[in-house]
Design a protein that fits this description.
This protein has about 210 residues and is an alpha/beta fold. Helix content is about 35%, strand content about 20%. Strands 5-4-1-6-8-7-9 form a 7-stranded mixed β-sheet, sandwiched between helices. Helix 2 links the parallel strand 4 and strand 5.
Length: about 210
């Protein structure tokens, strides 16, 4: 299986006063660079999705050797970035992650790829049924038409596309917790304070 990874970095960072979440810095490295460093040994290629050319230019100095793609559809949220990434990826399975999840765990990503093999996707799910579609592995060829259908219908929720897949492996948090005891993989960073709080909790110690 050839593996690709897609980092969705096209958000507007409204909670940061329009600052770029992906460019928050810890120990001299941006969250985007940190994610690329972690993903590099796990996949065959890393792709970064951005919303427009202006953001592409802003990120270009942080992603050497990594492809930057602009959204074709504007105002469609993560689905627009997922579509461009899936169309461009060379791997038949693609790990999709939001740029505001910087505490990625290689073992968890590897598990998702293995579980997705031969299926449409592998998506983590919480005990209460909530799903994590932006930290999941997808069959590229099957997800593309599902995204296109959702965008054309005007339903741009990520799960609107994922729900069209027929053979999804839902991976329980109990299994993931065997590899990521604090489930830091799913910690969202929306502000610098969020990042500092997770660092104080020792999130980087899990790597």
């Amino acid at each position: 299986m050839q593996r690709s990874a897609l980092i969705l970095a096209g958000g507007k960072g409204t909670r940061l006063g329009e600052r770029e979440k992906a460019l928050l810095i810890h120990k001299g490295r941006t969250l985007l660079e940190k994610a690329i460093d972690i993903l590099g040994p796990v996949v065959d290629e890393v792709i970064v999705s951005v919303r427009d050319q202006r953001q592409q230019e802003a990120f270009s100095g942080y992603v050497r050797g990594v492809r930057l793609l602009c959204d074709k559809y504007q105002g469609k949220g993560p689905l627009a970035g997922m579509l461009e990434g899936m169309l461009s990826a060379s791997g038949n399975y693609v790990f999709v992650v939001a740029c505001d999840m910087p505490f990625l765990q290689p073992q968890v990503i590897d598990l998702l790829f293995k579980e997705a093999a031969g299926h449409d996707a592998a998506v983590p799910v919480w005990k209460d049924g909530r799903k994590e579609p932006l930290h999941a592995v997808y069959n590229r060829e099957l997800l593309v038409p599902a995204i296109e259908t959702s965008i054309l219908k005007g339903d741009c929720h990520v799960m609107a596309a994922v729900s069209q897949l027929h053979d999804v492996r839902f991976i329980s948090m109990d299994r993931i917790q065997l590899m990521d005891r604090g489930l830091v993989s799913f910690a969202n960073i929306n502000t610098p304070a969020d990042l500092e709080q997770m660092i104080k909790k020792g999130a980087y110690d899990y790597e």
